[in-house]
Amino acid sequence: MVTVTVAPAGRSVSLAKGLPITVSIPGKGVETATVADVKAEIVKKFPRFEVSRQKLALKEDKRALVDDKTLRDAGVVDGGEVTVKDLGPQIGWRTVFLIEYAGPLVIHPIFYYLPKIIYGGSVQHSRVSQYVFAMTMLHFFKRELETVFVHRFSNGTMPFSNVFKNSGHYWVFSGAALAYSVYSPAYSSSSPFIRGTYRDDPTFLMACLGIWIFAELSNFSAHMTLRNLRPAGTRKRGIPHGYGFSLVSCPNYFFELLGWAVIAVMTGSYAAYTFLAIAGYIQTVWAIKKHRNYKKEFGNQYPKGRKVIFPFIL
């Protein structure tokens, strides 16, 4: 049996007023008991203090201990002490993704099919508006399906308040702003901004559609490669190889940005370019972090010539 003292990190924990406590894990030693076992014992003492809200760390260390690590690997000794912090109400990552992508799926049909309510009159949609509507709906429907059937998440939950921040740029920029722009009278079939321009050229639009389909399928391929690296229910990580990964660490981000770049070019919309810039910044930051983590974890085994997100550039 192993025993561990659990103390509050900083101020007292409202859902665990009795801290510090000593928990015992019967039948296990530090070689077999895990951080998750300690969290489960805390829940037994304080039923409202759910596992997802708990952040365990070593004393004088702010780094969270990983649930599936043994106490020995986490640096916890028999009779040692860990601290616990309340992370607040949590929500599942999968749920957050579903909420994020649901926004544009609801917003775009409202602007597309109800122009009298939005713009005060009917709008005869141009070819480019029709293409953008179909492409946007298919993109986010694909993302919803991937969230349910493809993605595997190393972290189970995030703070509930993050759902608003994470959903904001999808709901506002690729949702309301883009829809308001490309389904407006300025993009109608009779608008001088459309008639006689490349935005109404079937050959140009079909070429854009072809590149967009290539980007979407390539993005899906990258997601499948990442999925197959991690067995279900594990945090296992490996070095991704194959299509796209020979050039960059995060081809899924590159191909998604390529798809949005196509929409920006074919429409010339300020909203499309704004969303592309925001998404490009966010995903580049994510990619740099992932690239560094790959190099830190795998060292010399990680391909040296592989860029971060943009082939041959960054």
Automatic annotation (TrEMBL):
<keyword id="KW-0443">Lipid metabolism</keyword>
<comment type="pathway">
    <text>Lipid metabolism; fatty acid biosynthesis.</text>
</comment>
<keyword id="KW-0444">Lipid biosynthesis</keyword>
<feature type="transmembrane region" description="Helical">
    <location>
        <begin position="243"/>
        <end position="264"/>
    </location>
</feature>
<keyword id="KW-0521">NADP</keyword>
<feature type="transmembrane region" description="Helical">
    <location>
        <begin position="168"/>
        <end position="184"/>
    </location>
</feature>
<feature type="transmembrane region" description="Helical">
    <location>
        <begin position="204"/>
        <end position="222"/>
    </location>
</feature>
<keyword id="KW-0560">Oxidoreductase</keyword>
<dbReference type="InterPro" id="IPR039357">
    <property type="entry name" value="SRD5A/TECR"/>
</dbReference>
<protein>
    <recommendedName>
        <fullName>very-long-chain enoyl-CoA reductase</fullName>
        <ecNumber>1.3.1.93</ecNumber>
    </recommendedName>
</protein>
<dbReference type="GO" id="GO:0042761">
    <property type="term" value="P:very long-chain fatty acid biosynthetic process"/>
</dbReference>
<comment type="function">
    <text>Catalyzes the last of the four reactions of the long-chain fatty acids elongation cycle. This endoplasmic reticulum-bound enzymatic process, allows the addition of 2 carbons to the chain of long- and very long-chain fatty acids/VLCFAs per cycle. This enzyme reduces the trans-2,3-enoyl-CoA fatty acid intermediate to an acyl-CoA that can be further elongated by entering a new cycle of elongation. Thereby, it participates in the production of VLCFAs of different chain lengths that are involved in multiple biological processes as precursors of membrane lipids and lipid mediators.</text>
</comment>
<dbReference type="Pfam" id="PF02544">
    <property type="entry name" value="Steroid_dh"/>
</dbReference>
<feature type="domain" description="Ubiquitin-like">
    <location>
        <begin position="32"/>
        <end position="84"/>
    </location>
</feature>
<keyword id="KW-0276">Fatty acid metabolism</keyword>
<dbReference type="InterPro" id="IPR001104">
    <property type="entry name" value="3-oxo-5_a-steroid_4-DH_C"/>
</dbReference>
<keyword id="KW-0472">Membrane</keyword>
<keyword id="KW-0275">Fatty acid biosynthesis</keyword>
<dbReference type="GO" id="GO:0102758">
    <property type="term" value="F:very-long-chain enoyl-CoA reductase activity"/>
</dbReference>
<dbReference type="GO" id="GO:0005789">
    <property type="term" value="C:endoplasmic reticulum membrane"/>
</dbReference>
<keyword id="KW-1133">Transmembrane helix</keyword>
<dbReference type="InterPro" id="IPR029071">
    <property type="entry name" value="Ubiquitin-like_domsf"/>
</dbReference>
<comment type="similarity">
    <text>Belongs to the steroid 5-alpha reductase family.</text>
</comment>
<dbReference type="InterPro" id="IPR000626">
    <property type="entry name" value="Ubiquitin-like_dom"/>
</dbReference>
<keyword id="KW-0812">Transmembrane</keyword>
<keyword id="KW-0256">Endoplasmic reticulum</keyword>
<feature type="transmembrane region" description="Helical">
    <location>
        <begin position="270"/>
        <end position="288"/>
    </location>
</feature>
